[in-house]
Amino acid sequence: MSRSAVLLAFLCVCVCACSRGAQVQQTAPAPAAAARPQAQTTPETAPTNQNETEQAATAQESGGAEDDAQPTRGDTSLERIAALAPQDQLPGGRWKAGVNYDPIVPAQPTSATAGKVEVIEVFWLGCPHCYALEPSVLKWLKTKPDYITFVRVPVMWGPVHQAHARLYYTLVELHRSDLFEKAFDTVQRENNPLVANTPDATLNLDVAFAIANGIKAEDFTKAYNSMAVNLDLQRAQDLTERYNITGVPTMVVNGKYSTDVSKAGSVDNLFTMVDDLAAAERHH
């Protein structure tokens, strides 16, 4: 497959597949070292008929909990919040559970330290909606409360997403998170998807990107195939599944609430609501 054909297919992915349910023409297999391939949730496993779609919607409304999960005391509280009258919901009735945000039941553990509230953005380098949101994310990061710990998690739906996730975590492993914006620009604006139709070709594109930005090829390749990056990919896969991520960008507050621009009503509302939910969690 020529690079132009790969680029054309990738652009189709960008337009159509910022949601898990979209049927994606996958242009690249996952790198051979990708973690837990047997557990991948790919677009091909999305609902394919009306009954399955209705079942998936029901599962999403319930927070994506496993059938045999036993609610804890905290989970019961979250279920109760979702059933309260709007004026009694968190925080202060300004935002409605099930409308502006979805309670995650059961609540999931976070990596935040004591006194901190974790806010996750689930994203994909190939998603134009994520790219459009990025300037607002950067603006919010300058003003967010100190008690909020912000974490980026790349979505892990399928091979293209996993390839981009490996690039992202490789940059993190090399302490070059400053190149995140450059990678975003490269994928979204420079006609270079940083993914190809074979793992070796994808690695070559990523190595070329690294060299162009001051990283030695051998250093990049070593990190790319490292155990640390594989563990990061495994965690991202796990979070994609546990949070039942069906679209990006998605914001997750303290493992208990998920929301997005559409639910919030606007970009400004999204970050105001994230701050409000985080404040409610801090004082909970």
Description:
The protein is of the alpha+beta class. It has one domain (3-28, 73-282): Glutaredoxin, CATH 3.40.30. Helix content is 48%, strand content 8%. It has eleven helices and five strands, in the order αααββαβαααααββαα. The chain has helices spanning 3-16, 50-61, 73-83, 128-143, 159-173, 180-189, 199-212, 217-224, 227-242, 261-264, 267-282; strands at residues 102-103, 117-123, 148-154, 250-253, 257-259. It has a five-stranded mixed sheet with strand order 1-5-4-2-3, sandwiched between helices. β2, α4 and β3 (148-154) form a beta-alpha-beta unit. α5 packs across α9 (227-242). The longest helix has 16 residues, at 128-143. Residues 23-76 have low confidence and may be disordered.
Outline of this structure?
This protein is an alpha+beta fold and 284 residues long. It has helices at 3-16, 50-61, 73-83, 128-143, 159-173, 180-189, 199-212, 217-224, 227-242, 261-264, 267-282; strands spanning 102-103, 117-123, 148-154, 250-253, 257-259. The protein has eleven helices and five strands, in the order αααββαβαααααββαα.
